[in-house]
């Protein structure tokens, strides 16, 4: 099936299924992640108590793990949640926020990678270079890395980790071992809103909970945020732009996606 037909079908499935997306996520952006999941037509739940993970994950259609404000307690909950999700064939999305910033983040992410089979891992260029074992430039959780080797890094990671890898930046790259795309939507104004990466990962969770197609879901989650960034009203300032961004995600559908998406298949 051509990517265009898959995109249209994905929105139809999302509307019918209204998947429940369980997040253990960044408390800086947790409300925004919940709102974009609702806006796209899925249902969010945010819970990080380890003792309820088996019951909570069992209710979900997808699980999103985000280490942005992780601690020892929430990492333990993530490990439990991921184990339950894998056992029940529930897709899992990882957002390794600032993985290269501290030893705790690197070691915690490695624990997650060792214990959990992920469907999609989404991160910025510096985060992906860190996962690939390469030197990366970052400032806190933000990437300061540039270069033209993004496709090679993304493809190598997809083969190494056995899942879809989505690298976001000036050019977004989404690959699994046998297929790779570059995405060319977006607006610089998105850099002025905290958590657009976290929200993109949450959107991926919504799509993969509906379709169980990790590659397509990564493309759609990232493109939804990028296209909304292009369309949303920026004339009234950053705060209003953020609200307009969520409003625009709320009207996203297959037709609008197909009209606006700029996608190129690499292989």
Q: Which structural traits does this protein have?
A:
single chain, 267 residues, alpha/beta, UDP-N-acetylmuramoyl-L-alanine:D-glutamate ligase, nine-stranded mixed sheet, 11 helices, 11 strands
Spatial order of the strands in the main sheet?
Answer: 2-1-3-4-5-8-9-10-11
Main sheet overview: 9 strands, mixed
Structural class: alpha/beta
Rounded to the nearest angstrom, the distance between the terminal CA atoms is 16 Å
| Helix percent band | 40-55%
Low-confidence stretches: none
CATH class value: Alpha Beta
The tally of strands reads 11
Tell me the overall shape.
globular
What are the secondary-structure elements, in order, as H or E? HEHEHEHEHEHEEHEEEHHHHE
CATH homology superfamily: Ribokinase
Number of helices: 11
Q: Would you identify the CATH architecture? A: 3-Layer(aba) Sandwich
Radius of gyration: 17 Å
Can you tell me the CATH topology?
Answer: UDP-N-acetylmuramoyl-L-alanine:D-glutamate ligase
How confident overall, as mean pLDDT?
94
Instruction: Provide the number of structural domains.
Output: 1
Could you describe the 3D structure shown?
- This protein has 267 residues and is an alpha/beta fold.
- The chain has a single domain, classed as 3-Layer(aba) Sandwich (UDP-N-acetylmuramoyl-L-alanine:D-glutamate ligase).
- Helix content is 51%, strand content 17%.
- The protein has eleven helices and eleven strands.
- The strands form two sheets. It has a nine-stranded mixed beta sheet with strand order 2-1-3-4-5-8-9-10-11, sandwiched between helices.
- A hairpin with a 2-residue loop joins strand 9 and strand 10.
- Helix 9 crosses helix 10.
- The model has no long low-confidence stretch (mean pLDDT 94).
């Amino acid at each position: 099936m051509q990517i265009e037909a898959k995109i249209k079908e994905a929105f139809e499935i999302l509307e019918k299924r209204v998947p429940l997306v369980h997040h253990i996520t960044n408390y800086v952006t947790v409300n925004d992640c919940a709102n974009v999941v609702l806006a796209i037509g899925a249902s969010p739940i945010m819970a990080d108590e380890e003792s309820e993970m088996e019951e909570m994950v069992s209710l979900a259609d997808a699980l999103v793990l985000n280490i942005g404000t992780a601690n020892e307690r929430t990492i333990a909950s993530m490990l439990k949640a991921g184990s339950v999700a894998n056992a029940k064939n529930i897709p899992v999305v990882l957002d390794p926020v600032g993985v290269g910033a501290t030893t705790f983040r690197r070691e915690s992410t490695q624990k997650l990678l060792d214990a959990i089979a992920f469907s999609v891992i989404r991160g910025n260029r510096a985060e992906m270079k860190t996962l690939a074992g390469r030197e990366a430039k970052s400032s806190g959780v933000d990437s300061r890395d540039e270069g033209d080797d993004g496709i090679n890094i993304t493809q190598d990671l997809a083969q190494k980790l056995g899942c879809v890898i989505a690298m976001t930046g000036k050019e977004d790259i989404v690959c699994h071992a046998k297929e790779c795309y570059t995405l060319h939507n977006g607006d610089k104004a998105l850099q002025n809103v905290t958590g657009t990466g976290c929200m993109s990962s949450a959107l991926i969770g919504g799509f993969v909970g509906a379709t169980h197609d990790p590659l397509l879901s990564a493309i759609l989650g990232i493109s939804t945020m990028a296209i909304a960034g292009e369309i949303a009203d920026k004339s009234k300032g950053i705060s209003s732009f953020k609200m307009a961004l969520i409003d625009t995600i709320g009207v996203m559908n297959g037709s609008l996606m197909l009209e606006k998406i700029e996608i190129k298949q690499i292989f």
